[in-house]
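Predict structure. Chain length: 360.
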Amino acid sequence: MVDRARPSESETLERIAAARARGPRLSDDTITLAHGAGGKASAALVESVFLAAFGRPDPAELADAARLTVDGGRLAFTTDSYVVQPIRFPGASIGQLAVNGTVNDLAVCGAQPRWLSAAFVIEEGLAVAELRRQAEDMAAAADRAGVAIVTGDTKVVPRGAADRLFITTAGIGWIPPGRQLGAAQVRAGDQVVLSGSIADHGLAVMMARGNLALAADIASDSAPLNQAVEALLAAVPQTRWMRDATRGGLGTVANELAQASGLSVILDEAAIPVKAAVRGACDLLGLDPLYVANEGCFMAVVPAAAAETARDALRQVGLTAAAVVGQMVADPPGVVAVRNAFGGTRLVDMMVGDPLPRIC
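Prediction complete.
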């Protein structure tokens, strides 16, 4: 028998980093639900189909919104489609989600959201009363976020051609002079700050579908984050990077940061806020909260000396669960790991598959 020594933790991390450097590969012949989940399959689809057709920007610039220079000023522009099922769930609705999600994509790029568009694909048979309620939800969400819905479109498709209601929103925001957020700004030694507890949204939607013998007091965290982002940037203007942890959850967003920055993200498991009901539901369902979607939570990277200031600024605007949850390290590059309370470390890869389809 040949005695093969087990690789050390550092050797394992280095092997994973080398594999990731080769980039995602699309090997599928047809589209599956996993391609819309925000994990490895989504990354491969975007890289192999859309970036191949539309252009390949610097990976560090693949953010939730495009940053554009217009007449000397800087704008952010984003678009997103919402196909969540059911269209109403504890804490939010598809209409509210469509506004908040687009506002948040602009905000975490450093923009102050101003204007939104809204396009509706409506399935024949949807009650007008429900459509009116969704429009009212959108108006209320826009008012709360301080944005205006200024243009849109409506299409109606036959029964069975959609699932009640799909909404696409696009948004434009103004980037104040001097703001420079991005993975290229991140440095080894920086600290990772999380704005709130994770996995609320994904669990709320999953249980609202009614096909689980499980009941828990869990509501979506869907909310506009632009005011919280402004509070953070006012307190810590040298903030390096931000991203809202939607599809694929905190684990996938952390992996995107690691790959774009060329650094590793080391998370402290005990510091990551997860509500007791959410953790219990994840345990019963065999889900890792790190991969469950959020719609009112963002991850930020700040200089180490400013980490507590950043956390406190978020708590002062009502995000009482905000916490410092990790740090950036130089070696090995491009991986994510979680350290537990016992000193052990586990790797957190980018999500594979789609454990919770159609949650946004």
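Summary: The domain at 58-175 is CATH 3.30.1330.10 (60s Ribosomal Protein L30; Chain: A;).
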